[in-house]
Structures are given as C-alpha cells and as structure tokens.
Amino acid sequence: MPNRLVDKTYSLVEAVNDFHFAMMNDHDRNAFYRDALKAAIKPTDTVLEIGTGSGLLAMLAAKAGAEHVYAIEANKHLTSLAEHIIGCNGLTDNITVVNKLSTQVDLEVDIPKRANVLVSEILGTLLLGESALSFIADVRDRLLEPDAVIIPAAGSQFISLIESPDIKSITSVSGWDDIKLDGFEALKDTVTVVFTKQYGFRLSSIPFNTIVPRLSVADIDFYTDGPDSLLDERTISVKAQASGTIHAVMLDWEVYSDRERTHVMSTNPEDTRNNFPRDMQWGQALQLVEDASQDEDRPIPLVVEEGDDLEIIVRFSQDRAVMQFEVRKV
Fold first, then answer.
1. Which end of the chain is more exposed for a tag (fewer CB within 10 A), N or C?
2. In whole angstroms, what is the distance from residue 309 CA to residue 255 CA?
3. CA-CA distance, 133 to 285, in Å (whole number)?
4. Whole-structure pTM value
5. How many domains does the chain have?
6. pLDDT at position 292, please?
7. Which residues pair with 219 in a beta bridge?
C-alpha cells in the first residue's frame, strides 16, 4: 500500500474514488456554482461553505470576490487536503478551513460573524440523500444573516413510472428453455431505492418507455424549509399515459441557483446523456415495482392500460433523506 494511503480510512478512500473525482470533473456542475457565486457575491461578503471536500467551491467563492470564505469540512484528511489545494492556488489568505461538522460550528469561535452567503453541494442521487435539508436549516438558523443568499436556493425531487425490458432482464426471471424459475422472484426487492450505478448501467444509455411522466414529489425551498416541511406520507393520483408494464419508479432531481431559477442543474437522464461524470457521481435512482394491490408469494407485475387511474404512495424517512414508493391501480 502506498504510504499516502496508510493512515486513511477505507470509507474515505472508497468515497473519493466512487464519486469525488467524477464530481469534480462534472464541468457543468462547476460552471453552475461559478456562475451562481459570481452573480451573488459582493466584495464585503462573508461566505460559508459546508462540506468543502476538495475546497473547489470555496475557491470559486474567493475568486468571485468574497471578502473571506469559511469552508467547513468534518473529515480531518479532507481538511488537510483542502488546505493544501487552497494553498497551491494562492488563496490561503482568503479561505479558512474549519475541521468540524457544520452542526458543531460555533459563531464567534469558529467563524467571527454571520455569513452573507451560504453555498453547499451536499446533494446525493436523491435530492435530500445527504440530509441537505437538515444541515442547511441548521446553518440558516444559527450562522447566517437574515438576508443571506443561499446557493442552491431550491430544488425539486421528481419521479417517473417507466417500462424497460433491459431493467426487467437483470431484476427478474421467469425461466430458461423448459425450466421454470419464477419461484426465485420470491426474493425480488421492490421496497428499496437503488442507484443505477449499483446495477452497473447508465439509465441515459438504455431504452425505456414512460408510463407516467415526470412529476414532482418534493419541492424544496432552502431559504425556509426544514425536515418538518415534508409529510411522512402522501398519496398522488395519476393516470397512465401509455399501456405497458411498470417496471420501476425512476427518480431524478433539479436544483436552482436562485429563486428566479436562473441556472438549473439536473439529473434527468435526458440532461445527463452527454455527461458521463454526472451519471457516475449522481445518476438516477430506481425502485422496482410490483402490483401493490396483490399480495402473493411472488411479485405480480403491474400491467396497465392507457387511461388507468393509479395511486402513488410516497413515504419519507424521518430525516427526509430516503424515500419509498407503492404503486397501485385504483
């Protein structure tokens, strides 16, 4: 093992190699933040970043003209790396890296005054998958000026109901030749949201049909919302827009640089088709679907006709970071 890795935890090395490199090479993502920061920052502004990682967004804030930037990072190794990278870019005097979880940062101890701008990129494959709603609400209440700018300002979590023979081919089985194998489907997981990368493919590179088009299940305003802004459960009534078998709920999101939605960053597979790094850092999420109105010893496919009335039951975990779905014909 190289000496540079000996004192690092496996979880840190795994995380960096799993998505950090792809994230930093998502040039559209970087431009989204650069443009948003340039539009928001004034020369007298104090900027706070939570989850700085490499320090990239903090450096973009400094280059946008902020008076000073405080970059929060809980991991000690990433803190050291961020300080090194910031120094290599000649910005040590402009940026202070604080080695703490943002919820442990104290005003007038770790940062001298409330910040005028908050920037963060604590977004997962699910919009709130890294508990962004909880962390931003905490910082907003304790560490920001009342009129502070928050980047991103808002976001929407979308779902679609899709049919895809390719997805079916790796998540179910009926038989082979004259041998019946469908009993094995007793173990089919139709309750867990899974990232497409875990299946080993890009959703943007396989064909699928949309049975129920994209709809928002959570509209988030990072200026005002907290975990209590979302219900534990809600039911959405929709109609099938096409006939077919619903194989999965597909999840993607958008975030907006400001309340006017001047800049949009999206994980819609139509928007990531030509952005390989984005599919490798975020991609989309899937939850396989069975007919929830039938409880058998194996999952029953949800076959619908165009015009059928459907109910989508959306459930959030207590911290709102994870979602789960039930789909049934009315």
1. N
2. 30
3. 19
4. 0.95
5. 2
6. 85
7. 156
Total Cβ atoms within 10 A of residue 42: 12
Q: What is the rounded distance in angstroms from the CA atom of residue 305 to the CA atom of residue 191?
A: 24
Classify the C-alpha dihedral 231-234-238-242 as positive or negative: positive
Show the domain range for 240. 155-329
pLDDT of residue 188: 95
CA 42 centroid distance within chain: 29
Indicate which CATH number applies to the domain containing 222.
Answer: 2.70.160.11
Q: What is the SS3 assignment for 49-99?
A: EECCCCCHHHHHHHHCCCCEEEEECCCHHHHHHHHHHHHHCCCCCCEEEEC
CA dist list (Å): 152 to 81, 88, 194, 271: 25, 27, 25, 18
Helix (H) or strand (E) run with residue 213 in it:
strand 209-221
Asked whether 219 and 154 are in contact (CB, 8 A), the reply is yes
HSE at residue 127, side-chain half, CA atoms within 13 A, is: 29
Note whether 162 and 216 are same-domain residues: yes
Of 49, 73, 121, 290, the active-site residue reads 121
Q: What would the DSSP string read from start to end of 166-203? A: HHHHHH---EETTEE-GGGGGG---SS-EEHHHHTS-G
Give the pLDDT of residue 54.
Answer: 96
- Output the CA angle 172-174-180, nearest 5 degrees: 140
- Active-site position among 67, 130, 145, 311: 130
Task: Look at residue 232 in the predicted model and tell me its pLDDT.
Answer: 95
247 in Cβ contact with 162 (< 8 Å): yes
Residue 293: per-residue pLDDT = 83
Based on the residue annotation, tell me whether 121 is a catalytic residue of this protein.
Answer: yes
Told to judge if 130 belongs to the known catalytic residues of this protein, a careful annotator would answer yes
Asked if residue 313 lies in contact with residue 293, where contact means CB atoms within 8 angstroms, the answer is no
The answer to whether residues 56 and 163 belong to one domain is: no
Supply the pLDDT for residue 189: 96
Phi, psi of 82 (to 5 degrees): -60, -45
List of the chain residues with pLDDT < 50? none
